[in-house]
Specification:
Strand content: under 5%
Shape: globular
Number of domains: 1
Order of helices and strands: HHHHHH
Length: 186
């Protein structure tokens, strides 16, 4: 029985879900997504309890909600602190490897977020097209993915109704993960 591994999985999963919601909040503001979309409203309500007090300390800048970005970084730091100091024996703490581990974990989180968004967006585009209806979740995912997929569509435009830009971007993101050794990061 692997109790420590089970709790590590549970803790990192809960943290990863909330980190993704906070990252989605920042990105939704960057792309100026539909605020009245039900998914946007869920993200706002889920992040407001921590963001409202943080905004009193960290103001916005240039139309961006810097507090949500700071919250993203803080939650990753807490997650990694739990990962290193509770679930693993860190031994003597060395600052530089810990900082590199932190940066790699942030990059891995952002890349995984976009991989998930692009993959689910592509799948939902097929389902929504087949059903012929409006899906608020698909709409938000498309708004998040468009800044990443737009440049790829300029390189390879949709051909015959088939858009392979999501596949191109996903291959590129996985390549970056492999290149910088981000696979298997918490």
């Amino acid at each position: 029985m692997n109790v420590s591994g089970a709790f590590l999985f549970l803790v990192t999963t809960v943290f990863d879900i909330y980190i993704s919601i906070v990252l989605a909040r920042f990105i939704l503001q960057m792309v100026r997504a539909d605020f009245y979309n039900p998914v946007s409203q869920f993200i706002v309500k889920a992040t407001n309890p921590l963001l409202i007090p943080l905004r009193k300390i960290v103001p916005g800048f240039g139309g961006l909600d810097i507090a949500s970005l700071v919250l993203f970084v803080l939650i990753i730091a807490v997650k990694l602190g739990l990962y290193v100091f509770v679930f693993h024996d860190p031994g003597p703490v060395q600052v530089l490897p810990l900082v590199i581990f932190f940066i790699k974990s942030m990059a891995n989180t952002i890349i995984n977020f976009f991989l998930f968004v692009i993959f689910v967006s592509a799948i939902l585009s097929w389902v929504t097209a087949a059903g012929g209806g409006y899906n608020p979740f698909a709409d938000i995912l498309n708004q998040i993915a468009e800044p990443v997929l737009g440049p790829a569509r300029k390189i390879i435009p949709p051909m015959g109704g088939l858009d392979i830009s999501p596949m191109l971007v996903m291959i590129g993101l996985i390549f970056v993960k492999q290149l910088f050794g981000l696979t298997g990061m918490p």
